Structure formats: C-alpha cells, structure tokens
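User: For my dataset I need records formatted as: sequence, then structure tokens, nothing else. Please produce one.
Assistant:
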Amino acid sequence: MTKQIIPNKRRQFLESILKREVKADETEQYEKILKAIGDVGNLFQKGAEYLQRNPHSRRTFLKAAVVGSGLLAAGCAGLPVFESREDIAKIKWDSNPAIPVPTSGCYVGWHYDISPLTVGIYRRLFRKLDSSDEEILITKHYEKDYGQGPAVHSFSDRLVGDDFFPKQICEGAYNKGVIPLVRYYFFPDFKRVARGDYDNLLVKFAQGARDFGKPFFFVPYPEANIVSRFKYVHPWAGSGGKGFKEAWKHMHNIFDGEGANDYAVWGLHLIGLYVGQRFSRFAVDNDLVDWVGFTVYNLVEQSGGLDRSFYELIGQQNVYGWAKSHYPEKPFALWEFGTSDTTSQGIWIKNAYERIKNMPRIKLVVYAEYPMFTPFDCTVISDEAKPYYKEAISDPYFIGSKKVG
C-alpha cells in the first residue's frame, strides 16, 4: 500500500472535479465504465486501454475513477466498490445470527434520541419504569409520517460510565416490532478499561443486557476514530487508537462471561477520513465484531457550502472499499447517515437511497435526525423532504417494521 498513487498535478485536477455534485445520470455512466474496466487495483493499467478505445473520454474516465474508487481519500488502490447482488448472496456472513443479515435488501434504521442531550434528563429517563411508553410514542411519530416503522431504532446512552442497561426503552422498541440499537458511551481511558478498573460497571450493564433477553445492536464508542476537536461530543476523540483494541476485547470478554453476547450484536462504528483518524488503528479482530460501519453525512454549512452527493462522500472516504477489504464477511452498516436541511434535502435523500441499492453489502442504513450539528446544519427531515424519504423507504428493497394502516 502506498501513500500516493497519482502525481500531485493529477490529484489537483481530480480534486477540482469534486467541487461540484455529480448528477445521478452521470453516476450511472461512471458505473458502467468501472464495471467494464474491472477491479480498482488495475484501474489505471486497464484505464489506458479504455482511453485508447475512447480517446475523447479522458475526463469522464477520471471522474468515474474518483467517484467509484475513493482513491483521493484512501491514497491506495483497493477492491472494487461495485458488487452484484448475486455475489453478495453467496457470502456466508460471519456475524451473530441473533439479528439475521437480510438475504437481499437492507434494514431501514432511524436515529432519534429519546430526550435532550442532558445527562440529568437522560439518567432519569433511562431509569423510568414508563420509558417504554416514551419509546412507543416516538416510534408512532415515525409511523404517522411514513406509514411504517423503522426496522431499527438507534439511540444514545450518553451517560459515560453508566452501568444501567436501558431495558424499558428496548422493550418499547420490541413492542412496536423494532430492533433497538444502543450507542454505548463508556470511559475514554482505554488502558484503564482494558486493565479492569471499571469491571463492576461493565458486568452490571452486561447482566442487564442478558436479562433483557432479546437481540439488540450494541455499538460501543460511536465514531471511535473521530479527531480531537470533537472531544466535547465524544470523550475518546483524538485517542489515536492507543489501547482501543485491548479495551474492546476486554469489554467483549465480559459480555461473553455474563452471557450477554447471546443477544448483543456488536457494531464497530468509524467515521470518514476528513474528521477521522486512520481506520486500521481501530480495526478490532474479526471474532470480536459482528457488523462494521461508518458515518456518512452531507453537512453543507460545515463544508463551506459544498453540497456533495452520496457517491462522492462514499468515494472520497473509501469506507465501503475499506470495509470490504478488511472485513469481507461482515455486513456493512451506515450507523449514521443524512444530509443538511436544505432546499435540495429531499432530492439528496431520494438519490442516496437509490445509490445504496447499488451497494448490496450495505445491510443497514440509519438516517440520523439531529436538530443541530453546527449553528447551521440540521439533519432533521423537513416537511418538504418527508415525501421523498417516504418514497425511498417504501421501495421493497428496504426493510422496515410492519406496514401501518
């Protein structure tokens, strides 16, 4: 693997192409080109042959390379992004069967936090006996807008170091036919976690998960590789991965010992290269994780007004290719996914879900509604965009909970 595979001048040229959104009809053209060329490892070798046959298509070919392979961000040649559904159907998934991997299609997920992100409110709510009712009400809100429930509801346990498993909230999800996804915030000192300094808390949490007795997605340390400037959101930000793998293994062993891994489906959650540290530093062993996934957001204001398509984001960050290369038998999840509330939000959502259908390794897509990332970026689905989202998840390819009405 090399740090740079294309000259600086060509890199600058390709980056200049990425300053505008690639339209849907163009991406279809690029897909055909990449499929005709073959795997990305031989992209520029076979590309020369392609350009000899198509001498006027140099610019189009280079745009296809950027969108499809993620070479700019990854800095290395990887495996091909595009796979057939037939190829994916042949994979024997190496994951906890407590939550089956869809044979075809993709789970519809939704992230919506139970309460304002205030520790005191969270602590009271998580421990309320009627918090099951709170979860049911939230899911009903989703059903009212979209005619069905999500297959998966993601929420955050931001009580760092808490030993309380949110059984009531998870029960509320199951009462609506929804699988809960618990984003677990634990102590950021990985060395102390691995050493066992917090075992009493982890044991109690694992016992709560075991006593719940139903499958759930368990995602410790969300966006584990995020850079240090986000420490106010994720206390482990900027760790460089030091001690992370050891801490993860220790937590997993405790769950094993308490019988919680019969129900916990472990998810590794990383974030792309622009606000994330090197993926490999956080790549836990295959036998310690069930699903692997990333955050992919189109945050327009945060990027200085750049409205990027889903394919651009996937390509630049190379998340799909990296997951396929390092975890070929693990299902892929978009643990957090969404776009800013702009005039084009609905179109972006519609196009993104269409593109996801071309990436059949993706088996769960969690649209995350956050009122505010920055003073200007909001991923809550606007009233204008709701019909587009409803249409997207109504496609039979996407699997929600039971239809309503």
